[in-house]
């Protein structure tokens, strides 16, 4: 695969098992390529903090501590990324507001619906205002209103000059949110 993407929103479409998540894990530095090379924002993402701090990643799987609240979780991630406490609080509140979780930000994540957990994954990806968002099945579990709100949020980011890569096996999600798409089939 050889692809170069500029600012905008792009879809990565393919059936289950086609390699979408593997590619995203290569792009986010979670996997090291065994063949070839990977460049994100002009650099190798593997073990490279200067690249990873410029990326926001919304994984397919949940990885939240269920005892924490959304506010605690996003704030913790921002502090881990080096933001001072005051700035982490400000960004946490803004991100949770953006994704529609402001009213439930102090509830335990264990009590969240699947759609609420999906919104939280997007908030954690957005909170540090990355140049590039990499989203793995970001609309999974969202109701029609939530899907529309997320598409609007992604369009706002695109208009602000940010890059977005959305992986999904549902073409209609990509058609609603992306400018162009890449079909990946068979790994």
List the helices and strands and how they pair.
Blueprint: E1 8-13, H1 20-27, H2 49-52, E2 55-58, H3 70-80, H4 85-98, H5 114-126, E3 132-136, H6 144-159, E4 163-168, H7 171-177, E5 180-183
Parallel strand pairs: 1-4, 1-5, 2-3, 3-4
Characterise this structure:
The termini are close together. The protein is globular. It has helices spanning 20-27, 49-52, 70-80, 85-98, 114-126, 144-159, 171-177, and strands at residues 8-13, 55-58, 132-136, 163-168, 180-183. Helix 3 (70-80) crosses helix 4 and helix 4 (85-98) packs across helix 5 (114-126). A 5-stranded parallel β-sheet has the order 2-3-4-1-5, with helices on both faces. The chain is an alpha/beta fold and 187 residues long.
**How would you state the average pLDDT, rounded?**
92
- Secondary structure: helix percent: 25-40%
Strand content: 5-15%
Terminal CA distance reads: 10 Å
Structural class: alpha/beta
Record the strand order, biggest sheet.
Answer: 2-3-4-1-5
Major beta-sheet overview: 5 strands, parallel
By DSSP (H or I, 4+ residues per run), the number of helices equals: 7
Number of strands: 5
Approximate shape: globular
Low-confidence residue ranges: none
Order of helices and strands: EHHEHHHEHEHE
Overall radius of gyration: 16 Å
């Amino acid at each position: 695969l050889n692809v170069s993407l500029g600012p905008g929103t792009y879809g990565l479409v393919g059936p289950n098992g086609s390699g979408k998540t593997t590619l995203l894990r290569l792009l986010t530095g979670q996997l090291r390529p065994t063949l070839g090379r990977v460049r994100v924002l002009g650099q190798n993402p593997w073990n490279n903090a200067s690249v990873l701090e410029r990326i926001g990643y919304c994984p397919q799987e949940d990885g939240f501590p269920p005892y924490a609240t959304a506010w605690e979780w996003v704030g913790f991630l921002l502090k881990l990324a080096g933001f001072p406490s005051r700035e982490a609080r400000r960004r946490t509140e803004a991100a949770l507001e953006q994704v529609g979780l402001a009213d439930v930000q102090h509830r335990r994540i264990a009590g969240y619906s699947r759609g609420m957990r999906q919104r939280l994954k997007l908030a954690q990806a957005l909170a540090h205002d990355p140049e590039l968002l990499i989203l793995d099945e970001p609309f999974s579990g969202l109701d029609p209103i939530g899907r529309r709100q997320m598409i609007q949020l992604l369009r706002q980011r695109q208009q602000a000059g940010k890059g977005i890569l959305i992986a999904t096996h549902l073409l209609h999600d990509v058609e609603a949110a992306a400018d162009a798409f890449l079909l990946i089939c068979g790994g």
